[in-house]
Design goal:
The protein is about 65% helix and about 0% strand. With about 300 residues, it is mainly α. About 30% of the residues are buried. It has a two-stranded antiparallel sheet. α7 packs antiparallel against α8 and α11 runs antiparallel to α12. A hairpin with a 2-residue loop joins β1 and β2. It contains 20 helices and two strands.
Length: about 300
């Protein structure tokens, strides 16, 4: 495609044309925010254009020409090469062709434009706009785990909506433990109940690891009324027999035994599930202490009277 292969027809012939320092600095800051890898870097590498971080952002006109040449001479599909040039054109309004005009002149399919618009916005940390593009039904899912991980990383503490929306729309398969753990934390922040059912959707080993992570989240990551409400939600979940065993093993003998309120949770779970005698037996080690405002000694006496009656 002539418009693609000829640098001057796309960017212009002025030898002073180059990225300004502000644009270069902005791209480099964003790369650091994305754990030193832009999604454009991933695209370049996926299409066989090596040393992406050295090629982009280009600091001079010659660097820009080199980047353009490496893209256009790669062994990639024509639409893929066009998409990368389209991405670069979006970085500035000073080029001969705007990104939109370039796309029209070469008849770049709409789905490629939408995908690159989403990737470009991700690299600019414009996550809401990126999500609108990357959840377009016509797109072929590309880098789903990486996108989910990025959205989780940058989700506000009190608003996990974006990663959850991406997950439920795209339904990516999560193979990476790092991505799974981070996304599960996001789920815990959104809903203890939904996180519990999500843990059940995995095989036994991962199910147990996520189940314990859920328990730890409630006890270690929350405070005050939020922790109290989440603890009640946790206690009321419909655990099966195996999950009951995991809960007690984790909070009584396992890594969770030193968590704040671990024994409280076990006792309240036993009471909630009608195992009053077992709760009485466990309470003997509380020595009359008040835990979270609960006088376990008085509660134990009430339980004992109820059992006898």
């Amino acid at each position: 495609m002539d418009e693609l292969d000829q640098f001057d027809s796309v960017f212009g012939s002025d030898p002073s044309l180059a990225y300004n320092n502000q644009t270069v600095d902005h791209i480099l800051r964003n790369r650091r925010s994305l754990e030193n890898e832009l999604f454009f870097d991933r695209l370049l590498n996926a299409l066989g254009v090596n040393q992406a971080s050295r090629l982009y952002p280009p600091r001079s006109n010659q660097d820009l020409r080199t980047l353009h040449e490496r893209i256009t001479t790669s062994a990639s599909h024509e639409h893929h090469k066009q998409s990368l040039v389209y991405y670069v054109l979006k970085d500035s309004q000073q080029w001969k062709l705007s990104a939109e005009k370039f796309a029209r002149k070469i008849f770049l399919p709409n789905k490629y434009q939408i995908f690159i618009d989403g990737i470009w916005c991700l690299d600019r940390l414009m996550f809401e706009i990126a999500l609108d593009n990357l959840t377009e039904p016509s797109l072929t899912t590309t880098f789903p785990e990486e996108i989910l991980y990025t959205l989780c990383q940058h989700a506000p503490e009190d608003n996990p909506a974006l990663p959850l929306a991406y997950f439920h729309t795209v339904c990516p398969t999560i193979a990476s433990s790092k991505v799974l753990d981070l996304f599960f934390t996001i789920q815990c922040r959104a809903s203890i109940t939904e996180a519990f059912y999500f843990s059940r959707s995995h095989g036994e080993l991962i199910h147990r690891r996520l189940f314990e992570k859920l328990i730890a989240f409630v006890h270690a990551n929350l405070t005050g009324e939020t922790r109290a409400a989440s603890a009640v939600e946790l206690i009321d979940l419909p655990f099966d027999e195996t999950e009951e065993e995991w809960l007690e093993e984790y909070l009584v003998e396992g890594k969770g035994r030193s968590l704040y309120g671990a024994k409280d949770t076990i006792m309240m779970r036993k009471i909630a599930t009608g195992r009053s005698q077992s709760a009485v037996d466990l309470s003997r080690n509380t020595n009359g202490r008040k835990i979270n405002g609960v006088d376990w000694e008085s509660l134990t006496r009430s339980l004992q009277q109820g059992i006898k009656s």
